[in-house]
Q: What sequence folds into this?
């Protein structure tokens, strides 16, 4: 069925349902086609007219649509008019049954106080369209032309297991020979990545040296990185406590500049130089700790 025709059928069904009285209590379920074929999708529209304050739920793919099977669903935007809301969904279903008439009745769920109420509408039916008539099977010419279809060979599971075992043995041998080297390189890569993440974060925070929030974020990022490298609680230390751990005149001047900006609101032209010094200190500590880390891995 063409898309335009399907759309017209959906709109017709919605127009019919919208005309229900304000006291309608049952959902309305209708097939949008009058017949079906084996394995071909057919559309079923389910709608419910209710008070806008009600929470309404429709069956999903986990619901048993027997004798049909679920393919997909399309929800229609809720329409509210005259103190009533109309919720609708169109299901795409398939059937592999050959009953001449097939019926379907779906519920809607009304959410209450900690519970839900299931409401069923009337069942709708659809006719099964036969592709081959019984009289056609009696045709002698047709019977004479029947052929057996070739069937693919069964999967050779022993052969698959054999090749899988070979792959596992090769992989095991590779890991036995090079596993330690790969592990070391991977851990070094993680160590380097941690520093690269700090570099990106620090440079992003220091783009605007007049931004107090950026300066504060840069200091926090710097302390966290030094804390990870040195394995000491630098994030909880004051400037004076940090300088006791890392005596450095240039670092002392730099930290005083950023403290003045953060706590005193004094933004000087030396802030970029302070950031540069802090970055150099972090990079030097990283190089030292990376060498120590690499030595431990190679032991």
A:
């Amino acid at each position: 069925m063409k898309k335009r025709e399907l759309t017209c059928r959906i709109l017709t069904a919605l127009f019919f349902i919208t005309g229900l009285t304000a006291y309608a209590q049952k959902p309305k379920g209708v097939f949008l086609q009058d017949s079906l074929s084996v394995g071909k999708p057919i559309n079923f529209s389910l709608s419910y007219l209710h008070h806008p304050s009600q929470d309404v739920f429709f069956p999903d793919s986990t619901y048993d649509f027997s004798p049909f099977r679920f393919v997909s669903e399309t929800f229609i935007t809720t329409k509210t008019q005259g103190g009533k809301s109309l919720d609708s969904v169109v299901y795409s279903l398939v059937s592999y049954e050959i009953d001449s008439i097939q019926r379907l009745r779906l519920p809607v769920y009304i959410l209450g106080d900690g519970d839900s109420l299931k409401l069923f509408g009337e069942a709708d039916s659809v006719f099964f369209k036969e592709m081959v008539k019984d009289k056609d099977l009696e045709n002698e010419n047709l019977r004479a032309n029947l052929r057996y279809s070739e069937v693919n060979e069964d999967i050779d599971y022993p052969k698959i297991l054999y090749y899988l075992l070979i792959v596992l043995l090769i992989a095991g041998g590779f890991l036995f020979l090079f596993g330690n080297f790969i592990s070391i390189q991977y851990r070094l890569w993680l160590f380097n990545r941690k520093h690269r993440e700090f570099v990106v974060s620090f440079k992003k925070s220091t783009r605007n040296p007049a931004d107090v929030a950026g300066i504060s974020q840069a200091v926090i990022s710097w302390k966290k990185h030094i804390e990870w490298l040195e394995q000491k609680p630098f994030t909880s230390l004051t400037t004076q406590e940090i300088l006791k751990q890392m005596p450095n005149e240039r670092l002392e001047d730099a930290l005083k500049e950023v403290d003045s900006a953060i706590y005193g609101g004094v933004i000087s032209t030396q802030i970029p130089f302070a950031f540069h010094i802090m970055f150099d200190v972090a990079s030097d500590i990283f190089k030292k700790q990376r060498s120590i880390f690499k030595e431990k891995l190679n032991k």
About this structure: The radius of gyration is 36 Å. The first helix runs from residue 3 to 18. DSSP finds eight helices and ten strands in the chain.
